[in-house]
Amino acid sequence: MVPGIETLQDPGADRPVAFARLAPPAPMLPALQAEVAALLGREWIAHVNQRDYRGGWDVLPLRCQRQHAQAHPVLQGFAIAGGDEWQDLPVLDQCPAIRDVLAGLHCPLRAARLMRLRPGAEILPHRDRDIELDDGQARLHVPVFTSPDVSFQVAGLPMAMAAGELWYFNAALEHAVRNDGRDDRIHLVVDCLANTWLHAAIAAGQPVYAPAN
Q1: Which CATH fold topology does 17-208 show?
Q2: Residue 203's closest CA among 39, 3, 6, 2?
Q3: Is pTM, for the whole model, over 0.90?
Q4: Cβ(94)–Cβ(37) under 8 Å?
Q5: Would you list the domain boundaries of the chain?
Q6: What are the residue boundaries of the Aspartyl/asparaginy/proline hydroxylase domain, all occurrences included (predicted)?
Q7: Which residue in 19, 59, 117, 195 has a CA-CA distance of 20 to 30 Å to 40?
């Protein structure tokens, strides 16, 4: 539990927040999409948790633990548990729009990655138990390229995200994703520490609560 901050739950019920939209589509979305399109020729790394998905799911790391700054991209993209020192990778020097998005998050940043789900691919139901508000951590999503044919379910609830929006979702709850569209789905995914600013943003973002057990 974060000292001085209560876990966001539905008043009168033991139900944590499943997800919340924190911001409407960013005005820099076209610039953001252009930057990501320019990065498609780089080496993206297949997600290492192969039991959790079918089809193509890969990652381009943007921020990593300082100790892995010169390491293999697999460590930069997936060694994201723990650690107190994080830094931007050189690729962000070419991405002012992404840097602007990150600068607008008024909380301590940890990992930042572009995550791509190929057409026809699916992320199977799973939980990321090391990313919990109770432990002072959170995961944020900014869809860069997406479509109505992408299904994102959190605790059985549909989470419909439009390109350019900023969302929090509770990664410790069971979640699953399908891309039934014809194009890649690419999100900017940011792990951060959950401070007072983030808790206030979630509370103000019309949060949707997980179903009662």
Answers
A1: Jelly Rolls (2.60.120)
A2: 6
A3: yes
A4: no
A5: 17-208
A6: 32-193
A7: 19
